[in-house]
Amino acid sequence: MLDSQAVAGGESPAELLFRAAAMVPAERYALAAIAVVSVFLYRFLELHVIGDVLRGFRGGRVELTFHPASEIYHRVASKCRSLHGRYLATPWLASPHLQTLFLGISGRPPSFTYKRQLYTVRDGGTIALDWLLASDLEDADGFISKDDSTPLVVVVPGLTSDSAAAYVKHLVYSIASKGWNVVVSNHRGLGGVSITSDCFYNGGWTEDVREVIKYLHHRYPKTPLFCIGTSIGANIVVKYLGEEGENTPVAGAASICSPWDLLIGDRFISRKLVQRIYDKALAIGLKGYAKLHQPVLARLANWEGIKKSRSIREFDHHATCVVASYETVDTYYRRCSSASFVGNVSVPLLCINALDDPLCTREAIPWDECRANKNIVLATTPNGGHLAFFQGLTAGRLWWVGAASEFLFALHESSYMHWQKANDHVLHSSLESSIDKSPYVNIMEDGMVAPVTKDGPSNNDGSPSDHEVDGVQLSNGVGDRQQLEVSGEKHNEHVSEAGNESPAGSANRQGDDIYSNKLHEIIAPVKRSINQLTRHQGRSIWLLAYIAFVTSWPLLGSLAFITFRKKFRNPLRAK
């Protein structure tokens, strides 16, 4: 009956539906809109408030992955309460995106002042080392002696981050307040330092970390060295440890929110809308970094392509691959991924990752490789975001800072710290050494190759020249100057003695000199070979004597045969 009346009245079904909808109060529509938006934001921001409520605000359990026979877990990590408890995020930051965003905007870092040291690497690049000593927090004059045994932690920041980042300051202040010394090794071109060479850092550039750690170990030989890498800095640290194996002075390390596999991370960050937002934001940061060093990058890379880059991949295509000479972006990602180096890590290593990290996906975590290595303990939490892990109602603490420092402190108190072997002699240098810059070389008497430059002898010990750290003047060349003075004194003595001799004595000495020169020419190659073997192989003199005997046996046998053959011929002729 109604349908026939509606049709008779000339109203269509759509008009009837619109009239019925108009009869619903506006408040109902507002509530429905709020509900839809809330569901969308809950899913889009990956909120976990409901999950926290259902768990009674106890937080998610920390899951540990390790080798069943790992002494690092049973003797060190098992004593860390943070690794065997739960992590509960700050209630009003119950989202990985909110945590990451809050860390980038504010982070509530502690207030303190670094002491800066400018370190010059072998290729001419400059690195800012920012120090915070335990004594600095006590209003005392910071000073590190060469015989100081206070542990020192080297911090490697993430992509486009430096020592001023909120999470870095949280970490540095927490460790220094517990009595250890900390130094932040900023990447090249960051921390307010200009690019002074044609080398730039990237996600797999381990040369700077290697040289800084080598310098610190040489400068403070009795100081236990620890290393903590964050984000892309964690990828660099793990890759460095895998490259070095046993040959590193690092006693223990921690990796925080490492991307692990850069190729998988590249695919992940361009998959969803929210990840693409992060991708563009990081690309903007990289372009800002490039703009600071435009004079150098415009000469080395595709500057027009850099300016148009809208993603990390495009920036790497126009900048990183060109400067670092990688064939393709995928080649760069594959070669610089730390997941390929996990199996060779020989240092106690704690790895922390959040499973909801919006930048570093859980798909890239090398679960099996970490489980197979007895030196690695992998800790994962359901929540935490990227380098955030805020705790408490005021978000004043970062959970991973306490967990990493607790692990390193427990490792320091144990007997499982890594110690570099005394006979390790492999010296790593930058890809562009001073020898590469010089067209000529000298072959020294002991077989060493030294560059011939206009600047004099090159500095090959990796230590900076004329820098001051906490009142300690770091200068080079003292030993060389003393050696030259001693040599000069001996030369003067020799000249004075020669001036007092008679002509006959002078003639005899001249003959002796000619004889000694010829003898020196014969012995010099053998002496050079012995010096090389002694320096590089560290063998005993008896082994060298054995080698010399074996290698010279054909010559000695031939001489003996000729000698005895003549003796045997004479008796036969007499008969």
UniProtKB/TrEMBL annotation:
UniProt GO molecular function: monoacylglycerol lipase activity; short-chain carboxylesterase activity
PANTHER family assigned to the protein according to its UniProt record, in alphabetical order: ABHYDROLASE DOMAIN-CONTAINING PROTEIN, ALPHA_BETA HYDROLASE 1, ISOFORM A
Gene3D superfamilies according to UniProt: alpha/beta hydrolase (3.40.50.1820)
Entry-linked Pfam families: Abhydrolase_1
Classification via InterPro entries: AB_hydrolase_1, AB_hydrolase_4_sf, AB_hydrolase_fold
Family: Belongs to the AB hydrolase superfamily. AB hydrolase 4 family.
Protein's UniProt name: AB hydrolase-1 domain-containing protein
Location of the AB hydrolase-1 domain: 151-392
Keywords recorded for this protein, A-Z: Membrane, Transmembrane, Transmembrane helix
Region span, Disordered: 450-511
Biased composition (Basic and acidic residues): 487-496
Provenance organism: Panicum hallii var. hallii
Transmembrane residue ranges: 541-564
Coiled-coil segments on the chain, per record: none
